[in-house]
Amino acid sequence: MGNAKEVEKLVYKIFLKHGMSSNHSKISAKAIINAELIGAPSHGLARLKMYCDRINKKLINPKPKIKIKKISSSISHVDANNSIGFVAGEVGIKQAIKNAKKTGIGLVGIKNSGHYGLSGYYAEQAVKKNLIAFCFTNAPPAIAPFGARKSLFGTNPVCFGTPTSNKIPFIFDSSVSIINRGKIRVAARNKKKIPEGVALDKYGKPTTDALKALAGVQLPIAGFRGSGFAWMVDILSGVLTGGNHGGKVKDPFDDFSGPQNIGHLFFVLKPNLFIGNYSQRIKENIKRIKRLPKIKGVKEILYPGENKFRRHKKNLKRNIIISKNIRKDIEILNAK
Amino acid sequence: MGNAKEVEKLVYKIFLKHGMSSNHSKISAKAIINAELIGAPSHGLARLKMYCDRINKKLINPKPKIKIKKISSSISHVDANNSIGFVAGEVGIKQAIKNAKKTGIGLVGIKNSGHYGLSGYYAEQAVKKNLIAFCFTNAPPAIAPFGARKSLFGTNPVCFGTPTSNKIPFIFDSSVSIINRGKIRVAARNKKKIPEGVALDKYGKPTTDALKALAGVQLPIAGFRGSGFAWMVDILSGVLTGGNHGGKVKDPFDDFSGPQNIGHLFFVLKPNLFIGNYSQRIKENIKRIKRLPKIKGVKEILYPGENKFRRHKKNLKRNIIISKNIRKDIEILNAK
After folding, report:
1. Domain at B178-219, CATH homologous superfamily
2. I need a labelling partner for B159 at 20 to 30 A (CA). Which of A227, B130, B253, B265 fits?
3. A235 touches chain B (CB under 8 A)
4. The whole model's pTM is what?
């Protein structure tokens, strides 16, 4: 269907047709194409039909009245009015950046949002303004709390970004699930198996069948630690902000009983708050680590975000690879 | 040597004898005994001799002039002047609590500190004042960055605490190493083996020998993800605050070439910033999770901090168990 620019235009048009404003369509199309470009297609075009379905069913509000409440010069609370997650995320991170530029810290809680794609996409916006950022979001049940045999936590990523003094930002964006739920979904769509040891079926038995894994439980990284991280993220993005939490975030693909009301929390700060030479210090930090002796077969020690950056650059030059199923979805959505 | 109160008094006396003020001795003795009580002896009396050795060698300053610099009403920077880590931690968390009570957020960076024991101990202080807290600290090299065969990151814990609406705080305090370095040290002291798959020797081969593991590399949780968490914590607590970073934090037990200059970062916030009923919401969150069906053999789903709290309560009533080696150390230190 073409290169990034062409496909982005197509997605933009599809959102417009579904009643979203030009600005909101632009924001959302850009976020979706970004996921494709950095090599995270599970958060890209594979979700377009889902977003449109939820607009059609009035679960995503295509014309939201987003309210930003000022708590202090550093703190804001956003009620996203069930906007598409991308727009809530964009409004939220912009506000956090604004607050941080003013006072050194920006803290923004967002409620009544939906799936906003990749946390790293928002962290990167802050990093590009020379700020450090944390982004937290919860998600529909996928991971069982440690000791439970039913999933309740989402894959709840912890995301941290910092300027590096070079053009490639440090973006650590780690789901606390061993495998990304989107990847299982893509495997299910393409009738492929998933690796061993990453998921259980609904009876609590290990499985490599993607469909059975979707109906079952994903395993957290590092047992009780991964479970603890997921719980922490649920508290920060859900309990604290006014979003849904404790297993109440609806699966956007198959639960149409109401809006998701996902919560996000953005925490942004100036890197030179305490010392004047952060840029030099982070450069030195990265240099020291890259200089370490490597394991056999490893050419270069990469910091989080480098691989994504390189894939993005490479993918910009070529056509976006779209599976047959998704291509069909797009054609139908565009013909509307 | 007696119960918690008695041993705490003994440790207090030992610090006094080493030139620390009564107040600083009290703070440090309390933190050490707390580690014993919650069942983390690797961060307790096992380190007492090390702290005293470093005072004797003038690497820990027993009479520090700690400077607190106000950056804004929310942000402070502490120069701990090579104090014992416990005192720097105590000063830092108290300042963060003060700032958060005033403005909703408290952010405190600390430099020129040393090993401060357990992050959870500081998070708990904030939680007891009905605040949410993040505590980050770096540590001497123990973990190899993903792709490297030499350790550089410390076990760099991520620690998060929140009030729960009941008397047991939620304290998630997770090292990013599969096994705690202190535990390996205790195993080495007691000539015990460590589990398989948690560490490599200095040639990069798996080992269950505690001494070989100390000379080698600990493995991070979840491969590149654990490595990313460790890197994040090194940046937040070291690069950002002015502390040592990138593998420059000295091992307190065997590197006497200078002070550690560890950095810490505390981030504290009011739970009712965005919504008015946090206490009710967190109660509901925990209730929902505890109600889930359990895996066979699991009686109760616990949140992070519950086990520690119960051990603390139980251990308060009985004598502290001290190994022969450590008992001898204490006797020598006390006879000084």
Report:
1. Hypothetical oxidoreductase yiak; domain 3 (3.30.60.50)
2. B253
3. yes
4. 0.94
